[in-house]
Amino acid sequence: MNIASNLIRSLRRQFYRPSGVGGRLANWIMASRSSNRERNLWAVQLLDLQDGLNILEIGPGPGLAAREILGRCRPASFELLDHSQLVIDCLRRELTALTSADQLSFRMEDIEQATLLPQSLDRIYSSNVAQFWENPEAVAKKLRRALRPGGKIVTNYLARHRGATSGNSEVFAKAFAAIGRAAGFEHVQVHTLPLRPIPCAAIVFE
User: Fold this and answer.
1) Reading across the β-sheet that carries 54-58, which strands appear in turn?
2) Contact at 8 Å (CB) between 193 and 39?
3) 3-state percent helix, strand, coil for the chain, nearest multiple of 5
4) In this structure, are strands 121-127 and 200-205 parallel, antiparallel, or unpaired?
5) Are 200 and 193 in contact (CB under 8 A)?
6) Which of 67, 68, 129, 155 is most buried, judged by most C-beta within 10 A?
């Protein structure tokens, strides 16, 4: 039982920072879950994409949203930031075949330590990463400074922790929306995708 429990805990850690064989397995699981595909495709629509935008995705994982973004528009620039070298290496191989290399850039860094240029981005996207930020208030302020006038941020969240209930996504979304308002975003909206058994929430900041 202890061995099985340790293996489960080890695999769960891989969803936070994939590495090695376990990380590849975690990436495959994330890419294969129908709920992950559905909620990312749904949330990307909220970005209101168009050609010529400067886009940042934080924590792209197996690239579900990144592929959808590249299928919907031709960005001026698209940067993918992740603290896992395995994720960056996999996406560099897979995504460069979908668009010109000069549009894409990859950065192996944690968003909490990353430097973002003021008013340099039109769209920022993330999926199930904000709950891991140690200082979400500071990250929200950083993202607001990096956003250009008329820009938009979308982050989606689906509760997956042990014992998660249908209300957990809503609770997180309301708390994160409040953080965004405190950071200075004037327009904040929460959208819900009624997945079963637990709905997904998407928070939009403008």
Assistant:
1) 104-108, 77-82, 54-58, 121-127, 147-157, 200-205, 188-193
2) yes
3) 45, 20, 35
4) unpaired
5) yes
6) 155
Q: Report pTM.
A: 0.85
Query: Could you give the CA distance from residue 148 to residue 74 in angstroms, rounded to a whole number?
Result: 18
What is the helix (H) or strand (E) element at residue 81, kind and residue range?
strand 77-82
Q: Are strands 54-58 and 77-82 parallel, antiparallel or unpaired?
A: parallel
- CA–CA distance, 15 with 151 (Å, rounded to integer): 29
CA geometry: angle at 53 spanning 48 and 59, to 5°?
A: 80
pLDDT by residue (tens digit) across 35-55? 688 999 999 999 999 999 999
Q: How many CA atoms lie within 13 A of 18 on its CB side?
A: 23
